Amino acid sequence: MNIDVVELSRLQFAMTAMYHFLFVPLTLGLSILVAIMETVYVMTNRPIWRQMTKFWGSLFGINFVLGVATGITMEFQFGMNWSYYSHYVGDIFGAPLAIEGLMAFFLEATFVGLFFFGWDKLSKPAHMIVAWLVALGSNFSALWILIANGWMQNPVGAEFNPETMRMEMTSFFDVVFNEVAQAKFVHTVSAGYVTASVFVIGVSAWYLLKGRHMELARRSIAVGSAFGLAASLSVVVLGDESGYSASHTQKMKLASIEAMWETQEAPAHFTLVGIPDREARETHYAVEIPWVMGLIGTRSLTTEIPGINDLVAEAEQKIRSGLVAYDALMTIRAERADTPAEVRATFEEHSADLGFAFLLKRYVEDPRNATEADIVKAANDTVPGVGPLFWAFRLMVGLGFSYIAVMAYFAVTANLRGMRFPRPALWLAVIIIPTPWIAAELGWFVSEYGRQPWTVDGVLPTALSVSHLSVGDLLITLAGFVAFYTVLFIIEMGLMIKYIRKGPTEDVEETEIWMARHEERLQAAGPEGLASPAE
Amino acid sequence: MILYELIDFDILRVIWWVLLGVLLIGFSLTDGFDMGAAALLPFVGKTDVERRVVINTVGPVWEGNQVWFILGGGAIFAAWPPLYAVSFSGFYLAMFAVLAALILRPVGFKYRSKRDSQSWRNGWDWALFVGGAAPALLFGVAVGNVLLGVPFHLTEDLMPMYDGSFYMKFLGLLRPFAILSGLVSLSMLVMHGAAWLTLKTEGAVQLRARTLGTYAGIVAAVTYALAGLWLAVGVDGFHLVGEVAANGPSNPLYNEVARGGSWLAAYGERPWIVIAPIMGFVGIAMAVLGLRAGREVSTLLWSKLSIAGIISSVGLTMFPFILPSTVDPDSSLTVWDASSSHQTLFVMLVMAVFFMPIILAYTAWVYKVLWGKVTEDEITGSGHSY
User: Fold this and answer.
1) Closest CA to A358 of A386, A321, A332
2) Is the pLDDT confidence value at B1 over 50?
3) Are residues A98 and A10 in the same domain?
4) What pLDDT, on the 0 to 100 scale, is given for residue B382?
5) Transmembrane ranges (chain A) (predicted)?
6) Could you tell me if residue A288 is inside a domain?
7) CA atoms in the 13 A half-sphere facing the CB of A3
């Protein structure tokens, strides 16, 4: 096994997946915001809302195309760089990817063209339905991708088949209703909604600062902040749900995120900040809050959360058990139908730990030849990088909570205080535009880096999952992706900024005429009428 | 729950083999004209507005069309995991080239007309040309390699291993027969793109598309016939040896395979499959005549028929082989030993049966809404055209 190939494959996957996720969150959220705006247009018939739909829709389109383009890479990268993974779990993992295509991607991709080209070809309600179908498709897409990813975190509804040397599905229902997948889905789409809200509010705030497109900007802030407030609450609640499910499905990830080296008496304390030290297996300068970790992780005061040291000892036991399974598997493979019944029974008993024996493949070709020292090393390998996880998680959570405050402020000011935003608040809205992307990427980092050394938790080690490729092959594609994606990113950002600077360009005259009439009517209604220009 | 036993494993495998073909054909019929039109772009459009007409014929539909490709990848992953694992890692650098081209294409469609600069637009026009022509060629090259056999073997753990390094993963794929196959697919899709442009455009663009499409059709017919001859005399086939458990576990190593004889022996065993190449040739002939006569709708339909025939002919000729191995024939992937489990195939079939009619229905509706010629006036007068 060539460790350089493993590390380069990981780097390439991390890079292309994180790049893809620069575009996904905005697609998820902006598709819904645009559909909401168009719904308001259809219900009120006010041209300003059509202008808003078209303007935000054009930014949505620039973003959407790169989400689609970089998604192509994701669909094929498993086969290209992770062929043993593809063979080993394709029976389960492939299904949600294919269903995503059938149920979601076809829907959003077929209708997104009509959204842009159908303005003059469709009735108003029909066009609005098209906008909602695009939003629905995008969000369904996230559902199936997270079912696939959730299975990597918590591989339910599947068992190993010695005849085919792979995991096979035993219950489609369990795979779909995997608790990890469901919590991650809502958490992820909500994060997308927050991203889009921060984006819409930030761009609108910039217009208000420049004194341009005030009407469009105010209404956009009103919609964005209301939507964003609900979404930011949902992100935090479902993030907590993910933490709770990790306490019984991915104990090592949870302990590493919290830098919890020793099992504590319940309820465990929460380490707010500190400096995790892997060598010494302790966290220096820790600031601790009693009880909180136990409450979040187990929702009880009496359930223990195991620490890293105990989990390593447990992993060592599982490796030994996995070796028994591996030995039985070799007999089954050689004898096939003639395998003695007791060997099959032994295999059944230990097969759940088979993946742990594969951890030894990093050190020896045949796990059965592993020394005691190899087993200890492999057990220690089950601890992911504690320091990066500890800090990435805290930064993500801090950002997550801050959006509740930001959204609440803008929602209240927009709806109850007549849109009177102080300039520093508007500048803040502009400055924080990039932060939800940072939070989202950190979230994926915690989820995926925290699952190491596994691609499928407890089932298949990352080091075993790769394709039979050379370092040269990987360097060529890695360099290609870096160069290609960098150019595309520069082009995308350039167009995004160009179109934001340009502002709304369609239906300008019609909107202005209506606006003038509308102002007149408001003036006639007196100062009370102006209190809520967002309608 | 053993609901999935309602349909036998071997029957499910055949159904999914057919569906694999349906997806490949669906992809070629829809995304095929995008690629063909993009490959024709610099030649049928001489002025900026002419090129915009071409781009706007595919502008509203390329996203949906491309999903056939994505779904093809997902369906191979779900229904034929060993094929997904072996082929994409084996054709590694070729796959990378295809991905790069396919990423370039949507970006080109969307971004090209967003700036007024002439050099910006010219740059994207060539990017679109590459994004259309390169995958059209490379898909055919891949099919050619599948017919020739690919140098991989599976270990006892069923890990796919490849013989040869950089050379084999890209340049090694460019064997003469494979290049000929690539020319078949390129010319076939260029003809299809021309048929699409004949339907959707008028004036000078349509006239040039008709002329170039006629040439492409003739090239397609000649190269397809040559590839058939070559298969008859110069390419070894593969066949299963001994008893095969069509209901057996998906482990390619359990079946014995021998190399030798001709792929075309299949036409002796199952004479009815000759219908596929006939569809190919008749479709091309009628499409070429239609292009010359300026018929619009029927030309596109004949072109579709030819594509369906040509792609089916490959699958039917090779059945039950999906990906034969030259270095270790026993590792070859066949319909009987390279599928997903019984239950997964059943679940996926239920999903496909439920969703495919819905997809076809709304896709048809979208094409109906967009029916009609794309004109220069329409583009210059509208803010949302590409």
Assistant:
1) A321
2) yes
3) yes
4) 64
5) 20-43, 55-72, 92-117, 129-152, 190-209, 221-239, 391-412, 424-446, 466-491
6) no
7) 5
In degrees, rounded to 5, the angle at the alpha carbon of residue A116 between the alpha carbons of residues A113 and A119 is 120
- Of A323, A354, A381, at which residue does a domain stop? A381
ipTM of the complex: 0.92
**Shared domain check, A201 and A114:** yes
The candidate with the shortest Cα–Cα distance to B365, out of A297, A303, A390, A107, is A107
Mutation target vs A (from B22, B23, B87, B103; most A CBs, 10 A cutoff): B103
Please give the C-alpha separations between residue B75 and each of A68, A289, B70, in angstroms, as whole numbers. Answer: 18, 49, 9
What total of structural domains would you count in chain A? 2
Residue type, B56: N
Instruction: Among B61, B165, B344, select the one facing A472 at the smallest CB separation.
Output: B165
| Separation of alpha carbons B249 and B338, rounded Å | 9
Chain B: residue nearest A78 by CA? B85
- Please tell me whether residues A23 and A149 are part of one structural domain: yes
Give the mean model confidence (pLDDT) for residues A12-16: 95
Mean model confidence pLDDT for chain B = 92
Average pLDDT over residues A506-525: 82
Q: Which residues of B touch A107 (CB under 8 A)?
A: 359, 362
- CA dist B152 and B154 (Å) reads 7
| Cα angle A204, A206, A208; round to 5 | 70
> Which among A113, A161, A476 has CB closest to B64?
A113
If asked whether residues A343 and A397 sit together in one domain, one would say no
| Residue A320 placed within a domain | yes
> A426 and A326 in one domain?
no
Residues A375 and A439 in one domain: no
Do B251 and A110 make contact, defined as CB atoms within 8 angstroms?
Answer: no
A374 and A428 in a single domain? The answer is no
Q: Which phi-psi region, left, alpha or beta, contains residue B260 (left: φ > 0; alpha: ψ -120 to 50)?
A: left
The CA-to-CA distance between both ends of chain B, in Å, stands at 52
In chain B, which residues have their Cβ closer than 8 Å to the Cβ of A98? Answer: 71, 74-75, 77-79, 348, 351
A399 and A325 in a single domain? The answer is no
A440 located within any domain: yes
> Is residue A261 included in any domain, yes or no?
no
Higher pLDDT, B106 or B351: B351
The answer for residues whose C-beta is within 8 angstroms of residue A448's C-beta and 6 or more apart is A14, A17
Range of the domain at A336: 308-381
Set of chain A residues whose Cβ sits within 8 Å of the Cβ of B70:
71-72, 75, 101, 105
Buried b (16+ CB within 10 A) or exposed e, A466-500: bbbbbeebbebbbeebeebbeebeebbeebbeebb
Structure tokens belonging to residue B309: 């025939």
